[in-house]
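Quick one: structure for this chain?
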Amino acid sequence: MTDFWIILTGTLVAATCGILGCFLVLRKMAMVGDAISHSVLPGIAIAFLISSSRDSMLMLFGAAVLGLITVFLIQLLQNSGLQSDASIGIVFTALFAIGVIIISRNAAHIDLDLDCVLFGEIAYVQWDTWVWNGYDMGPVAVWMLGGTLLIVLAAIGLFYKQFKLCAFDPALAAAVGIPVALFHYMLMGLVSLSTVASFESVGAILVVGMLIIPAATAYLLTDRLSMMIVYSVLIGAISATGGYYAAKWLDASIAGAMVTVAGILFVLAFILSPSHGLVARLGKRRRMNSAAA
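Got it. Here's what it folds into:
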């Protein structure tokens, strides 16, 4: 059962992050997930100081609040004229540094490990279980990630057309009466929720990898958003499964192996994609040169 729970946890992370990653890639905001995953550290530390407990819901609430604050500050700096990459870099490094200061100043009172927060350890998810009326219901992480995935699916399913139009043409969306700012913050809220729900179990590295790489790979394989979402989830699931068995074979980090497999799949798509791949583009250029000659 250990293999099953680890692969299921990785697949749930991949599915949740992969769906949202498609919209982030299309909007050229892929690094927002990285910013959120680092900047929520002060929220986790403050929640622990207030409650003196590592209760998952309190941690999730504290991290979610800081995630939304991160998104608001990034948008505020962008609206003031600062470039997107600079805004993201300033906000997440500043908030992450504040979190490090809070933890280092209160090390005797905060039972937190920075390495665990950043890198996580998906191999331990099966030990933290939810017991209800004396019955072992399985790992808490699986229930939390499953609930998060349902929320994401419900939001995207209900407002798919609005999210799609806002991703491809925000000006047209505003012209037809869609509240672009509302859907921007809704998407960022979903990213924040998914990020903090995921990285508590698997660490920031796997979350950021699954937010960006499967969606970027799917982007190379299709020009339809619906198929891009499907491909992203499938690529993420393959990466989670293949990465787990690769980690067992190599005796290496499971999260690192999952992201590595995702990276290998991206390289293959970058080279072999029938429409956007390197081979296809070189062939097209050769045909154009032959026709010109």
